Known about the structure:
- This protein folds into two domains: 36-140, Ubiquitin-like (UB roll), CATH 3.10.20; 149-473, Glutamine synthetase/guanido kinase, catalytic domain (Creatine Kinase, Chain A, domain 2), CATH 3.30.590.
- A hairpin with a 5-residue loop joins strand 10 (215-220) and strand 11 (226-231).
- Helix 8 (315-322) crosses helix 12 (428-436).
- The chain is globular and about 70 Å long.
- The protein has 15 helices and 19 strands.
- The chain starts with a helix and ends with a helix.
- The protein is of the alpha+beta class.
- The protein has helices at residues 5-24, 42-51, 78-84, 144-153, 197-210, 236-256, 302-313, 315-322, 328-331, 379-395, 413-418, 428-436, 439-445, 447-466, 470-476, and strands at 29-30, 33-34, 56-62, 68-73, 86-89, 103-108, 114-115, 125-133, 160-174, 215-220, 226-231, 234-235, 260-262, 276-284, 341-342, 344-346, 353-355, 368-370, 422-423.
- The strands form four sheets. Strands 9, 10, 11, 12, 13, 14, 16, 17 and 18 form a nine-stranded mixed sheet that branches. Strands 3, 4, 5, 6, 7 and 8 form a six-stranded mixed sheet that branches. A two-stranded antiparallel sheet has the order 1-2.
Amino acid sequence: xxxxxxxxxxxxxxxxxxxxxxxxxxxxxxxxxxxxxxxxxxxxxxxxxxxxxxxxxxxxxxxxxxxxxxxxxxxxxxxxxxxxxxxxxxxxxxxxxxxxxxxxxxxxxxxxxxxxxxxxxxxxxxxxxxxxxxxxxxxxxxxxxxxxxxxxxxxxxxxxxxxxxxxxxxxxxxxxxxxxxxxxxxxxxxxxxxxxxxxxxxxxxxxxxxxxxxxxxxxxxxxxxxxxxxxxxxxxxxxxxxxxxxxxxxxxxxxxxxxxxxxxxxxxxxxxxxxxxxxxxxxxxxxxxxxxxxxxxxxxxxxxxxxxxxxxxxxxxxxxxxxxxxxxxxxxxxxxxxxxxxxxxxxxxxxxxxxxxxxxxxxxxxxxxxxxxxxxxxxxxxxxxxxxxxxxxxxxxxxxxxxxxxxxxxxxxxxxxxxxxxxxxxxxxxxxxxxxxxxxxxxxxxxxxxxxxxxxxxxxxxxxxxxxxxxxxxxxxxx
Length: 479
């Protein structure tokens, strides 16, 4: 079956069955799936660890580029970790402290505790996200999770309670980490024997549900061996945590089944890349959707229009955070379903931002869909920049231009110029240039984090600029 045969499928199914059996021993089963933990206090976490003989506690946090970092503590250390935090060397974490001021503290967050639904070595593990603090106990301003939380705190000053996020993160399965050998030749929504990733996705969904992450959809995507699992919306900070867990589970379950999963934006020539469409909405203090209006023809409130205008106004600047890799800009090209042109539309998927069709009685679902980000971003920084751009539009009552319902890919450069339709940065260097002097990003990230990100991305661009590729040799060696 497929490129890897029946033995591969059987291996995946056996792993999925083992996950069910192992997890059910430690968590209450509800409708055949384990019930996610709902622990709220350090005392509840300590009781769970003792009752279920947990042998390992993993503390997670994220560096400036979005890579998960983790260290392990024993149950004996957990009470002290809750009380005082666990010290670590911040100078060894990308984008954190300099070596002469490297001491940092990770304080576990009890509300994020979840059981890991498969064994890691001989251990039975739970994981918690950690709040990164300075030695004096104050929040570390350069931690991506703290950066997002600072932006979310601004909502209160505008009469809003929270921001909901629903991501659609795509990825590929390949035979191993050193090749792009696909596992199937299936296409969009295909359910045929060639879609060997179906069982891998099933195991991943089980693990997500076991860790408290609800799934709405899962399916094969357009390109061979490309897949998507859509997470049910949640508040922005919780969703950033969930997205980091999601990416780890996708890759870990693939690894345990002898294949490689990647969120690389554009791994295959001539095929669609992997994006992460982000559905976003803001709610008022009375828990009503601040983006909804019954009077508007598109059901968008003035707040939604100002917010959307802010996103479009700052799209070039925030692109470095939503699409941070050199490879990201090989996806953002016309012809492969990735948006490039800075405009908005209702239902039109060639626009940078789309407004999903309104359903009567579903006012709470009114939202905007940002179609340009990819899942290789740091979700904390990406969500923070989206919110900052949108709030800038709200604060300044930015005027939203009319929607564009044309197929933007079919317009000539002259026609786009006549319509005053601008485009995203065309490569990483262009994105860095747009971001480096951005007052919006400096206010959002802090000067130190922005400078470190600019320095890192300039080095990445220079490395590619200086590299002589096989394609260049093929084309030019005879010159």
